[in-house]
């Protein structure tokens, strides 16, 4: 991974904003979907696709690519937007999200869109598949890495912890799990629905290396990934603390936006805010 | 009764079966043993074959593979959901994982991971379900999977294979390893007669005429194929009824042409399986026949019940799957056939 220059950082922030803008437009067009998670993960997806991952958008099945597994499939529009920005497919295709015949299914399907790696949606299963891929890579002496993006609420699933045990047993240091710790799920705040804290301590107790960062601070996230890459003999989890709905003030921190799209009117407001955010980024440079 | 069709007679002869009537002379061997042998051969044949087991290595007979290829064997403990989901990942990394547990736990417990992580991903994972059926015996209902065919055959992309004896299970394991895509291979715990020989052909998706006849078609799968053969011999000897016995080992994709041909020839069908009649192989046969060639059908299998403890023989008797039950069902379906306008 290259060093993160100031210019690159600003470019990544702008990409994140572009992703958010595309995402809002897609969601309104689709008429359904999840708002909060994709918005708060836009910074991380920008960093992954435009700085961290070894990948070739024009050759999505390139053998030596890093594998990015999206476990919480419902935030897939943020991945679709990042992939389109990266050149995996034309941006115009983003308007087909959730529509009949689209490669951009409501929850991502590997067989439909090259570059997705796995089909996901039912929660708690991504880390298990990521661990299997990482194990297979180790068997063949491959040096590419497996990144698994997961939500905080799916840490409530039993299967997730089966995978945590497995990855620790086999010391899968080519596996980096990134948890979107945005504190919300459909029915309310995670700590009310089914408490997860102290989450890093749980992973630590399961023999994982643990890191925490501000998931909306791209420089901090990139730094965490760099430290994760240096870990040996243990799988690594990065608990990325994010602000649910980040970038659209009326959505921020409100669990009601977990599973619904903005109305066209609300979208206009959201897009205006995102433009302002871009202004802020530019003003800050 | 009607005569014997020459082509079916030839087909049956080409199966080169053992002298199945002489139970004392037949080798008795568990289908799981056949699986274990087949897996080792598959491992020799292809370095990408990997064995994954959820704390049942010995009883699923994956032990030999784990000893022959320790670097390709993965012990994951009592984690059946992980067994399915993680192995989907192994397949995506280019491996051919064979995953083994009791059928009750995988596919039973791991159904959603099999559906979404393996089959919707079209991942090249081979699911080996051991201890299927009530013939597990003393362990009782908790460990007797009689619903697994129903829940697996409902999943797109998944091939479902239920071989008839240990030798066929061995060959099925090899064939499965050579066939890309998700497969469920079902087998049992108890020793059962080996009716096939080294000369008996085997091909996934191709049903086999094991005996010729034109009065009733006995369409069977798994270890109860033997009971169907025994029933057919009794019916021929005692009642002059000639049964066609079809080894319908691939429940999905089923050899529809062979099933329809058997129904067309006999005009009456009895399905035989060590599984619930709700949604099992017999249901699959009935679906095809209802659509293409409706004839009277009787179903041998467990009828909307859980299993229980007992010896395999006691349980086969209790749940109505012994040769004499098949004989009675054949006579009943013959009566229905005769009563048709």
Query: What spatial form of chain A do the alpha-carbon principal axes imply?
Result: globular
CATH superfamily of the largest domain in chain B: Thiamin diphosphate (ThDP)-binding fold, Pyr/PP domains
> Beta-strand level of the residues of chain B, as a percent range?
15-25%
What is the correct CATH architecture of chain A?
3-Layer(aba) Sandwich
Q: What CATH first level of chain A would be assigned?
A: Alpha Beta
- Low-pLDDT parts of chain A are none
The general outline of chain B is globular
Question: What do we call the CATH topology of the largest domain in chain B?
Answer: Rossmann fold
Radius of gyration of chain A: 18 Å
Q: Output the strand order for the largest sheet of chain B.
A: 3-2-4-5-7-6-12
Report on this structure.
The complex is a heterodimer of chains A (285) and B (341). Chain A has 285 residues and is of the alpha/beta class. Chain A has a single domain (6-284), classed as Rossmann fold (3-Layer(aba) Sandwich), CATH 3.40.50. Chain A is 43% helix and 12% strand. Chain A has helices at residues 6-30, 36-40, 42-52, 76-86, 126-139, 158-169, 190-193, 199-205, 218-229, 264-284; strands at 67-70, 146-151, 175-181, 184-185, 188-189, 209-214, 236-241. In chain A, strands 1-2-3-7-6 form a five-stranded parallel sheet, with helices on both faces. In chain A, helix 6 links the parallel strand 2 (146-151) and strand 3. In chain A, helix 1 crosses helix 4 (76-86) and helix 5 (126-139) packs parallel to helix 6. Chain A is globular. The two termini of chain A are 23 Å apart. The model of chain A has no long low-confidence stretch (mean pLDDT 95). By secondary structure, chain B is an alpha/beta fold. Chain B has two domains: 6-24 and 199-338, Rossmann fold (3-Layer(aba) Sandwich); 28-193, Thiamin diphosphate (ThDP)-binding fold, Pyr/PP domains (Rossmann fold, 3-Layer(aba) Sandwich), CATH 3.40.50. In chain B, the strands form three sheets. Chain B has a seven-stranded mixed sheet with strand order 3-2-4-5-7-6-12, sandwiched between helices. Chain B has a five-stranded mixed sheet with strand order 9-11-10-13-14, with helices on both faces. A two-stranded antiparallel sheet of chain B has the order 1-8. In chain B, helix 4 (80-92) packs parallel to helix 5 (111-119), helix 8 (224-239) crosses helix 12 (323-338) and helix 9 crosses helix 10 (281-292). The two termini of chain B are 18 Å apart. The mean pLDDT of chain B is 95. Chain A binds chain B through residues 67, 109-111, 117-122, 125, 128-137, 139-140, 142, 158-159, 162-163, 165-166, and chain B through 50, 71-72, 74, 76-77, 79, 81-82, 85-95, 97, 112-113, 116-117, 120-122.
